[in-house]
Amino acid sequence: MFERVRFRCGFARARSARAAARGMLLGIALLAGGVWAACAAPPTDERPTAHSGAQKYWIFLEQRPSPSRSVRRTRPVADVHLRRLRALGVRPLVHSRWFHAVSARLSPEMRRTVAQRPYVRRTQPVGTLSPLRRPRRAPGRPGTTRSVLHAAPPIPAAPPRSPAVGALEGPLRRIHALPPLARGWNGRGVRIGFLDASFAGLRHPAFVSLRADGRLAALRSFPRRRQGGTHGLSVVSVAAGYDADRLVGPAFGATVLGATTEYTQFERTVEEDHFVAGLEWLYRRGADVVNVSIGYTTFDEGQRSYAPEDLDGDTALTTRAVDRAARLGMTVVVSAGNSGCGTPDSCWYYVNTPADADSAITVGAVAPDSSLAPFSARGPTADGRRKPDVLVQGQAIPAASARGRYARVSGTSFASPQVTAVVAQMLQVNPSLGPMAVRQLLRQTASQAQTPDTSRGWGIVNADAAFRTAEWLARRTPPSQLQVAQPYRSVRDSALIVPVSAPSHTAALRVRMYSPQGRRLYRATQPAHAGPNHLRIDASAVPPGRYRCVVVTDRGRRATRLVTLSP
Description:
- This protein is α/β, with parallel strands linked by helices.
- About 20% of the residues lie in helices and about 20% in strands.
- It has two domains: about 10-40 and about 165-470, CATH 3.40.50.200; about 485-565, Immunoglobulin-like.
- The chain contains twelve helices and 25 strands.
- Strands 8-11-7-12-13-14-15 form a seven-stranded parallel sheet, with helices on both faces.
- Helix 7 (about 230-240) packs across helix 10 (about 415-430) and helix 11 packs across helix 12 (about 465-475).
C-alpha cells in the first residue's frame, strides 16, 4: 500500500470566482529525505548569457499607453515598451501583467542604459530588493544540504466508514475535517490552483474521477524543459485526490489547475519569475484558491539570496505577487517552509518567501501527536508579524507517488494542501468569502485562537468549526432568489447532488426530475433552510441521458437546471 520513497535533485506554491535551503522546497521528504525530483538540463534561455557580468533583473515599466480595452486585457506588457527594449538589445523573458514589468539578463552597462530610459520606472535584481550579497551564515542557517527526517510510525489503517477517506483518516480526523465530507461538501464548483514542481500529468489512480468528470481544467509548465518527479502530483492528491478507501482529499470534487514553476535541476532566481507568471496565469484561469507548496530563501552559489531582514512581507516579488492576488480576491495558502530546527546544526526558523506575505494563509506542520514538527518554519517575520497562521499534520502524510503507488510524505508542502482543501469547502458553502475573511475564520476557530504565538500561530486547524462558521455566515445573508448550481453525480453512490441556495424563510424544497419528453421520473420534498443546501436525488434507476431538474420552494419560487447523467 504505502511505501517510503527517496528522490534525488532538489525542488521545493484565488481570485474568488465569487467576488531553508536552496529555494526551500517546502515538501521536505517523500518520507526519508528532502523531496527530490528527477533531473534535466536547464532550459537554454535560462543559462547565463555570454555577456560579461550579466545578471537577472526585473524591469518595471511606466504605465501602459491607452489602447483599446481588449488590448489591455490580452497584453501583459505594452507593445511599445517591448519594442523599445528589444531595440536596445534586451531580451525579455517573463512578462508580468500585474507589475507591468519584464525580466531580462542585463550586463552592468546595459542595466545603466535601460534604467536611464524615460519609460522605465526602475530595475530590480530578481530575488531581492537588497544589495547583492551572500549573508554570512548564521549559526544553524541552512546551507546547501537539507536535514533528513526519519520515518514516523505509519498511521494505522481505519476500517472503512462514510466517508471512506482511506489512509488520510488520521490527519483529517486530527483537524476535524471529516464532518464536512460526511455532509457532502467536497469543493465541487471551486477552482483550486497549484504552483509547484512537476505534476506528472496527474496520471495516477487518485485522479481517475478528476479526469473522467472533466475537472482537470489545465496543466501548464513555465520552465521550457521537460521535468521529472512527482512533488506536484503528491501535493494535489492530498487536497483533491480520490481513490475510494485508499486516499480521499477533502476537496476531491473541486476543479484543478496546475502551474509548474519550479525547475528541479537547480535553485535559481529564475524560478521566482516563473512563480509570478504562474500565479497570474492561475488568476486568469479563474482559480478561487491557490496552494503554494514551494518557497525561497537561499539560492545556488552566485544567485541572490534572502537575509532575515528581507522576510518582511514587502521585499520579494513573489511575496508581493501573493498580496496582489489577494487584493484581486484570490485566496492563497502557502507552506511555511521546512527551515525549523530538524537538527541542532540546521536551524533557521524563519518562514520563506512568499510565506511572509501579509495576506497569505501560512501553514506550519505538526507531528501525529500534535507537537510542533521540528522542521516547521516559524516566525515572527522581519516586521514583527506572527507566522505561521495555522498548523495541520505535516509528518507521515499519505500521498500519491510515482508509478501509481502511494507513499508517506513529510513537510509543510503536505500540510498546506489540507488547508487549501478546507478553504475550497468553505468557498463552496459560502462563495462570498474573501481571502481575509477566510483567513480570519481559520484563525479564530483554531486550537489556540486566544493565545497565538510565533511558533504555532493560532494553532491547529478546526476544519469543521471554520466550515460551520462560513455556512452560518452564508445563511445570515441568503440570496433574494432561489439559486440552483449544476447538479453532479456522487462518486460514492448513484445519488445526484443538487446544490441549492435558498432565500429567506425557506423550510422545504420540492425536487422534480423530468425526461426530455417531459415525463416525471422523480419527485420528493426535502427539509431545507435559508442559504446553502445539498439535495440528494436517488438516480439509481435513471438511465444515462439528459434531464431537467426542477426545484421549487415552499413559497412557490422555482429554478430549473439541465443535468447530463453519464454511464
